Structures are given as C-alpha cells and as structure tokens.
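Progress report, Aim 2. The chain analyzed during this reporting quarter is listed below.
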Amino acid sequence: MPATFGLEVTGQAQHDAWQLRVMPPAEQLASDLWSIPVTIPNNPLRYVNCYAFGTGAGLVLLDTGWASEESWQALTAGLAAAGAAVTDIRGVLVSHLHLDHSGLAARIRQESGAWVAMHPAEHAAIARPDYRDAALAVRKEAEFLRSLGATAAEAEDVVETEEEFAPFCSVALPDRELSDGDLADVPGWRLRAVHTPGHTPGHLCFAVSVQRADPVDPLRDYLRSLDRVRPMDVDEVFPAHEWRFRGLAERAKAIAAHHERRLAELLGAIERMPGATPWELAGQLTWSHPWDAYSGRMRIHAVTETAAHVHLLERRGLVRSSGGLVPGYHRTPAPEPRGP
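Predicted structure tokens for the chain:
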C-alpha cells in the first residue's frame, strides 16, 4: 500500500475517492464489519465514514451521518450494499454530538427501535435548554461570537437562522451512556470506549477487537487525548473522515506538531496585533482557503479553533488577556535574564 505523510494507506478506495472528489464505495472490512460513507451536504468534508458491526437483525452502527434526506439515502444505500436495512439496526454509537455524526440517530431509532449511546458529557451538552431551543441557541451563539470579538452585524451574518439551526436542536438524546473504559453492547465484538475530549467534551474513540459549554482549554485536552492514543497497539485506524490507515503513533505525532506550528503562527499574529480578539486573529492565520472564502458555520469553526489556541498560549504563560467581556490578547514580556 502507498504511504501518505509517513502513513500506510489501507483504505485505498477511500483515498482515491478523496483525491477524485467523489464518494467512496461501501466496503466490507470483515465478515461482519462494513464501512459506509454518508454524504454531508454542502460541506467540504463531503462525507462521514459510518461503521456497521454485525450481521442480520442485530447491527450496531457507529455514527450516522447528517440530518438530511440526501444523507439518509446514502446511509440506506450503504446498508443495502451490506445486505441490511435500517430496520436491522439494534443500536447506535455516537462518537460525538456534531451533526454529521449524530444527525440521523433519532430517525434510525424511530424506524428500528434502536438504542442510542454516547458519552455523559455529550448527553449533558445536548440536553441543555440552549441546545434544544433554536431561538435560544441562535441568541447564545451570537452572544458567544461577540465575546470573541465579532460585532453584532458580523455575528448575525454567520449564525444560522432559527429554521437553519433547528436540526442541531433535534439530535437524539441517548438511551445509554458510555464512559471511559465501558464496553459497548456489540455482539461478536469487543468495543471499549476511550474518552478523548478536545474536539468536543465527550468525544469517544473505540478500541476494537473481535470476540456551548466547552472545556476551558479544549486544545490542551485534545493534545492530551493524542498523547493517550499514540502508544496504543492497533493494527489499523478507521477514521470518520478521509481514509483508513496504519501508523497511529505517526499520525498523532504529526497532528500535535501541526498544532505547535499553529500556536507559533498565532503568537506571531498577537505580537503584530497587540490587543486583538480571537475573531480578529483568525483572519491573520493560514487556512486551506482564503479567509474571505469562509462564511457561516465554517467561519465560526475557524474562530473558535483560534480561540482554543489562544487559551493554550495563555495557559502556557505566553500571552495574557486584557480581561473584560470581549478580551484582547497581548504577548507576555519575556522574563529578564538573570545575572551570574
């Protein structure tokens, strides 16, 4: 198999489809394990890889896809390729609350009676009033962006309308919770939940073998989660996006190095723009597309990612906040050299 960024690509069909910007096929990875790509409408990620464990009327699905009819059709087609149907699903494991991973859980439960499981921290997040009520959610989102330095007009420009936000408020509340170390109820498989916060407070990975209230410092949690999974002895990694690969330690190391470079770039931006807010700083950083091309939810993600990096720089003592409702950030003076 070819290597990409030092990794051995094992999901060759997924890799090739990504390069060609098309949907990969559903793939049988073992006698009772399938990878099923599910479309993410109007999103540069294009699709999410869901995984179906088991056979017949006893499937357990890891992640579901976006809450849209297009995604539903992709999921049902993938299940059909595996010789199954939605009505065969007995359980849904949700890795985290984002809509491309959890969006169809409620519809699956309605169609099949399946249970839905996620980490307690995700359950607590989606049960909050500001997550279940679209009007309240939109207002809180705009307030949060203003606290990061957006003007009222800029916040209004990127935050969804109540109607657009409604799908985020309909994520299925779980029937079961999975904490770190718990075994998921998947017949024929041993799936151990590994709590890896950072991307979201209750993000879960699963170690597999046969038989708006984010954390204060999400990037630190994320880097710690990378440190936790890096030494795991695994044969192959099944990611939710892009393609399967071997080389978990190398990939974790590369991601950590990327964030260190991003921290250095951000520190430089703060030195050039003392007192800048995360909203202002985000536009000074290098992204995969020109900053002006980012709007709506993609701009929100970019700004909140920038804020997470600022928080870590602050925790490391490299920058300080001006305080107040909309803090700006300044480079912390280097300590005076000590005499002999």
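Confidence is low (pLDDT under 50) at residues 210-215. The chain has two domains: 3-119+171-246, 255-317. These observations will guide the mutagenesis work planned for the next reporting period.
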